Amino acid sequence: MASLQVDGVTVAFGGHRALDAVSIGAEPGRVTGLIGPNGAGKSTLFDVISGLRRPSAGGVSLGGRDVTRMPPGRRARHGLARTFQRLELFGRLSVRDNLLVAAEMGPERRRARHMVAEIVERLGLAHLADQPADALSTGAGRLVEVGRALAVRPRYLLLDEPAAGQDGEETERFAALLRSVAEDGAAVVLVEHDMGLVMSVCDDVHVLDLGRIIASGPPEAIQRDQAVLSAYLGE
Ligand code: ADP
Ligand code: MG
């Protein structure tokens, strides 16, 4: 199966374990939530999956292939794309050109312009397409980040707090977009603080706290999980 698997991943910064034997899976056609308090290790786990940080133990596989030692660029060619918590857009380029740069690196570079037009439409960014990225609100900037990840037609899509700064209407449209990306066959992993969005859009949820998975399951069960409630309340 073309799933994303993280198996027993440990990352230590000095003596501090940011991730401690973490195992999670994400399946194509599903949106998998990864939640947890600040500092839980969510972004570090994305760094391990995308190849920016080597774990001291454990591994990552994509579609059954062990990619633990594979550099980030090769993982991207296996269909992995991610967004960053901090925006990484080209500030002076327009929204359209930011998307074009990404599309021209993807597997369908000859259709890049067509794909960009499609993504602009899908993300509701038509009215902003000619604006420089610098001029965007945080919410819109994050949507463009997501658009850049979509432009490479990912099979595995990692989103790090993509809805931060979006208003209610933007979040609703974004939820529909995530569902459609999954329905197109991608395995989507969503790191997000907006619990309403997580609970409405995710098929499965993993909860990280202090570098450990403390719960995994469907959103309804996670919402009622005592360990999860305690972690969020800081007890
Ligand atoms: P989250 O994304 O869940 O908020 P992070 O993955 O950013 O959490 O961080 C997890 C833990 O690892 C935190 O305690 C953080 O301070 C620490 N950390 C993250 N990156 C580094 C780094 N480059 N050097 C040292 N510690 C780090
Ligand atoms: Mg983070």
Q: Could you explain how this protein is built, in words?
A:
- The protein is an alpha/beta fold and 235 residues long.
- It has two domains: 4-79 and 154-233, 3-Layer(aba) Sandwich (Rossmann fold), CATH 3.40.50.300; 92-152, no CATH class.
- The protein contains nine helices and ten strands.
- The protein has helices spanning 42-50, 72-77, 95-103, 112-122, 138-150, 168-183, 195-201, 219-224, 226-233, and strands at 4-13, 16-26, 31-35, 57-62, 65-66, 80-82, 156-160, 187-191, 204-209, 212-217.
- Strands 6-7-8-3-9-10 form a six-stranded mixed β-sheet, sandwiched between helices. Strands 2-1-4-5 form a four-stranded antiparallel β-sheet, with helices on one face.
- Helix 3 (95-103) crosses helix 4 (112-122) and helix 3 runs parallel beside helix 5.
- The N and C termini lie far apart (39 Å).
- Residues 13, 18, 36, 38-44 line the site of adenosine-5'-diphosphate (ADP).
- Pfam families: ABC_tran, BCA_ABC_TP_C.
Can I get a quick summary?
With 235 residues, this protein is α/β, with parallel strands linked by helices. The protein contains nine helices and ten strands. 36% of the residues lie in helices and 25% in strands.
Secondary-structure element order, as H and E? EEEHEEHEHHHEHEHEEHH
DSSP strand content: 25-35%
The CATH superfamily of the largest domain is identified as P-loop containing nucleotide triphosphate hydrolases
DSSP, total strands: 10
SS field, number of helical segments: 9
Protein name: ABC transporter domain-containing protein
Domain ABC transporter: 4-235
Keywords: ATP-binding, Nucleotide-binding, Transport
Pfam families: ABC_tran (PF00005), BCA_ABC_TP_C (PF12399)
